[in-house]
Amino acid sequence: MNKHKPQHELQHKQAFDEPLWWGLFSAGGVCFAVLLPAVILFIAVLLPLGLLPANALNYERASALLFSVPGFLFVGAVICLPLFHAAHRLRHGLFDISVGSDALNKKLMYGGAALLSVFALGLVIAGMLS
Amino acid sequence: MSTEQVNTNNTSTKHLSVKRYLPDNSAESYWQEYELPVDDSTSLLDALNHIKEQLDSTLSYRWSCRMAICGSCGVMVNGIPKLGCKTFLRDYEGDIRIEPLSHFPVQRDLVVDMAIFLEHLAAVKPYLIDDNPAKPYDPTAPETYQQSPEQLARYKQFANCINCGLCYSACPQFGLNPEFLGPAALTLAHRYNLDSRDHGKKQRMAELNRHEGVWSCTFVGFCSKVCPKNVDPAAAVNQGKVEAAKHTLIALFKG
Ligand code: SF4
Ligand code: FES
């Protein structure tokens, strides 16, 4: 019964990390909904079908676009934030079907998202420096 | 429509299956079938009263106001949490299955133990804190309890809760973890946090910003669907998440 616990004990149980995960989840959800459909339409549908002007995204243009500060932000919004969104859903989904322990799932899911994010952003930075 | 018309309209016989649990006789629950006469005005509570008075006096269930205000008559109707007095048998065809509210320990028949729900309600300090800084009988005290209609409107919807617990039966997260404060308690906390007369937000945030506080909610939203008073607990809990996030940021910067 929490009502009998002194304030410092409650403070002790504060979930200081959850606002961060939830913030990334929310931001990722917005990016998922707003940006990803357009990105998929252009890069995964129109481009392979040859419906874009021939040199709209040729190698020079694409690498110039990607390996830049806007490109860095683009990767953050289209890959990293949606990764954290998915990680949050997976973590809660696993809890819902009682798989694993939440403490471990949390580390695996958010850790995975963080690792992939660092990898993606690292590639962009490497491209910018080269 | 005259009363006579209502009473005699579409009289028919309906079939009710009630989940019985009589711990004095057996540790197992079982289904019992009842046939009873109903008309357009028969509520589920009327039907249970009919069973108790005419067919089977051993049936136990809770009720008091029979007008959706005391919050004591909640049961599962075909798997959905409902108030017995606000549910009409005219809306159901075929077999109607009545069970005690989900996610609560059953004491007897349709009577559940709501102790944990009441604990969660008490934990969020659902009352005005430090609303009146003046001492009693202080002639220089400012007039207390003044509130503009706009200030009232901020929390009014969240103040309509009747503590029926239907939202707890609807919430899969409460089902998985009864330590989760749950929809109604988090909504009540939000209701007092939004009240211009209240100064207890800091104390309540300490409860809300726990894993078992707002962060156990995964925004399923079924609580808001089943709520008989349109309180919209799901909205309150999610506004609570924003508040808890702000609270954490402020705490971080203040060290
Ligand atoms: S929020 Fe609605 S469903 Fe939940 S206890 Fe209050 S009145 Fe009942
Ligand atoms: S009897 Fe009071 S709410 Fe149904």
Automatic annotation (TrEMBL), chain A:
<keyword id="KW-0812">Transmembrane</keyword>
<feature type="transmembrane region" description="Helical">
    <location>
        <begin position="108"/>
        <end position="129"/>
    </location>
</feature>
<dbReference type="GO" id="GO:0006106">
    <property type="term" value="P:fumarate metabolic process"/>
</dbReference>
<keyword id="KW-0472">Membrane</keyword>
<dbReference type="InterPro" id="IPR034804">
    <property type="entry name" value="SQR/QFR_C/D"/>
</dbReference>
<dbReference type="Pfam" id="PF02313">
    <property type="entry name" value="Fumarate_red_D"/>
</dbReference>
<dbReference type="GO" id="GO:0016020">
    <property type="term" value="C:membrane"/>
</dbReference>
<feature type="transmembrane region" description="Helical">
    <location>
        <begin position="20"/>
        <end position="52"/>
    </location>
</feature>
<feature type="transmembrane region" description="Helical">
    <location>
        <begin position="64"/>
        <end position="88"/>
    </location>
</feature>
<keyword id="KW-1003">Cell membrane</keyword>
<keyword id="KW-1133">Transmembrane helix</keyword>
<dbReference type="InterPro" id="IPR003418">
    <property type="entry name" value="Fumarate_red_D"/>
</dbReference>
<protein>
    <submittedName>
        <fullName>Fumarate reductase subunit D</fullName>
    </submittedName>
</protein>
From TrEMBL, chain B:
<dbReference type="GO" id="GO:0051539">
    <property type="term" value="F:4 iron, 4 sulfur cluster binding"/>
</dbReference>
<feature type="domain" description="4Fe-4S ferredoxin-type">
    <location>
        <begin position="151"/>
        <end position="181"/>
    </location>
</feature>
<dbReference type="GO" id="GO:0051537">
    <property type="term" value="F:2 iron, 2 sulfur cluster binding"/>
</dbReference>
<dbReference type="GO" id="GO:0009055">
    <property type="term" value="F:electron transfer activity"/>
</dbReference>
<dbReference type="InterPro" id="IPR012675">
    <property type="entry name" value="Beta-grasp_dom_sf"/>
</dbReference>
<dbReference type="InterPro" id="IPR025192">
    <property type="entry name" value="Succ_DH/fum_Rdtase_N"/>
</dbReference>
<keyword id="KW-0816">Tricarboxylic acid cycle</keyword>
<dbReference type="InterPro" id="IPR001041">
    <property type="entry name" value="2Fe-2S_ferredoxin-type"/>
</dbReference>
<keyword id="KW-0003">3Fe-4S</keyword>
<dbReference type="Pfam" id="PF13085">
    <property type="entry name" value="Fer2_3"/>
</dbReference>
<dbReference type="InterPro" id="IPR004489">
    <property type="entry name" value="Succ_DH/fum_Rdtase_Fe-S"/>
</dbReference>
<keyword id="KW-0479">Metal-binding</keyword>
<dbReference type="GO" id="GO:0022904">
    <property type="term" value="P:respiratory electron transport chain"/>
</dbReference>
<keyword id="KW-0560">Oxidoreductase</keyword>
<dbReference type="InterPro" id="IPR006058">
    <property type="entry name" value="2Fe2S_fd_BS"/>
</dbReference>
<protein>
    <recommendedName>
        <fullName>Fumarate reductase iron-sulfur subunit</fullName>
        <ecNumber>1.3.5.1</ecNumber>
    </recommendedName>
</protein>
<keyword id="KW-0411">Iron-sulfur</keyword>
<comment type="similarity">
    <text>Belongs to the succinate dehydrogenase/fumarate reductase iron-sulfur protein family.</text>
</comment>
<dbReference type="GO" id="GO:0046872">
    <property type="term" value="F:metal ion binding"/>
</dbReference>
<dbReference type="InterPro" id="IPR050573">
    <property type="entry name" value="SDH/FRD_Iron-Sulfur"/>
</dbReference>
<comment type="pathway">
    <text>Carbohydrate metabolism; tricarboxylic acid cycle; fumarate from succinate (bacterial route): step 1/1.</text>
</comment>
<keyword id="KW-0408">Iron</keyword>
